[in-house]
Specification:
alpha/beta; Rossmann fold; 3 domains; four-stranded parallel beta sheet; 9 helices; 18% strand
Length: 283
Amino acid sequence: MEILIVKEGGFCFGVRRALDMARQAIEEKRLSATLGPLIHNPQVVEELQQQGVRVTEQVSDLQPGETLMIRTHGCSPEVPQQARERGVEIIDATCPFVARAQREAQRLCDDSWQVLVLGEPEHPEARSIREHTGGRATIVEGPQDLDGVDIKDKVAVVCQTTQRLDNLNALVSALLPRVRLLTVSNTICDATTQRQEASLGAAKEVDVMIVVGGYHSANTTRLAQICSEVNSRTHHIERVEELEREWVAGADKVGITAGASTPDSAIAGVHAALEQIAEEERS
C-alpha cells in the first residue's frame, strides 16, 4: 500500500504564528487564557490547558493583571476596550489574513456599500468580521441565502478566509443580475485555496482519502467535503485512534490531508498507523 501525504496540509501560517506566540508567552509565564479555543484542534487546546492556559468566552472571567490571547479567528473590537478597562493585558493572535478581511468589511461599510460576508453565520471568524462593521454587514453562506436579504443597488462581498472559491463564484453570479454596482474583496486565504486544490487532486488519485483535523474546524470539514465529492472512500478523523483498518482494505494507494489547525504530530501519527497496517498486510 502506497501512502501519499498532501504537502500543503497541516498548520497554516496564521495557526503556526498563533501557537508560536502562545508558547513564547507561556515561557514568559504571562499567558492566562485564550478567548475561545486558540485554534479548532482539541489536542492543541488540551496541551495548552495542561500548561495552565484556560479557555474563556468573556473578558470578565479574568482578573486584573492577567493576560488574554485573542485567537486566530479574531474578535469583536469591543474586546480590547473591555480588557483595558479591566486591567487585563491582550496578546492579539488574530491571523493577519483575517484582520485584512475585518478591515475590508469595515472600510466598505464606511463607504456606504451593503456588505455581505460569505461565511458560516456561527463561525467565530465570520462573526468577528461582521462585528468590525458594527453589525452592519450580513453573513451569507451562499446564493441560497440571498432570498432572505433585502439586496441594495450597491453591494460588496468579503469572504471568510477559509471559503471555497467556487462558492464565491456562485455568489457573485447570483448577485450580478440583482445589483447596479458590485465589488468583491477576495479575502480567501491563498493557503486555503492551495490546500483545497492539492487535496482534491490527491483524492482523485488515491483509493482512500483520510482527512485529519478537528470536527469543529470549518476548513477541515470543508476539505472532507471536497474530497468526498470525488472519492466516496473519504474519511474525516480527529485522532489516529479513530482510524479503522476496514477503510483501507484492498487499497493500493491511500492519501492523507489535514486542516490548517492540525499539528504535524497528528499527521505523522496517522501516517505511522497506515504504515503499520500495510506492514501487517504484507506479512
